[in-house]
Structure formats: C-alpha cells, structure tokens
Amino acid sequence: MSDSLSLLIYIKNMLSDLTFINGVIATELMKITENLAALRKGEEVLQKSNCLKEHHELNEKIIEIIKKYKIKPEDYETLENHILKHED
Predict the structure, then answer these.
(1) Can you list the alpha helix ranges (DSSP code H) found in the chain?
(2) Which of 6, 44, 69, 78 is deepest in the core (most CB within 10 A)?
C-alpha cells in the first residue's frame, strides 16, 4: 500500500474516531443540561418544556451522524443504547 493511501486511511479513521468522541460529548452535555435544569427549576418544569423532545431529536441526529462514519455496529451500539437508556 502506498504511503499516501496509508495516510489517507489513517486520517479517515482518526476523523471517524473524533466524530464518535464529539458525539459522546454532545449527548452527555445535553444530559447534564437537563439534570441541572431539573435541579434548578424542578422536574415538572423540565417535563413541560420542549427541551426533552428537542434533545431526543438531537440525540437521534447525533447517532445518525456517528453511524455514517462508523462501519461496524459495535462501534456505535453502546453509545446508542446508553443514550436511549438515559432518556427513559
């Protein structure tokens, strides 16, 4: 394999990993925001707002993006299950 092809594959894999890491960070930050809002304003206020629905939609979009760049299901299934479990 040529050096330039090896470098391209390396960069592609690195970007895929960074996309995954950013997805983890984004989904966890949304959960932290929800938890802080519930602590400050009460769980009832959070439940009445659009935030939970919007966060769910954002989480689904994040998982779609990760699936686009991760080839094997085991690369993203753990995060997908973790996010869905958090939302229950």
Answers:
(1) 3-41, 43-48, 51-69, 77-87
(2) 69
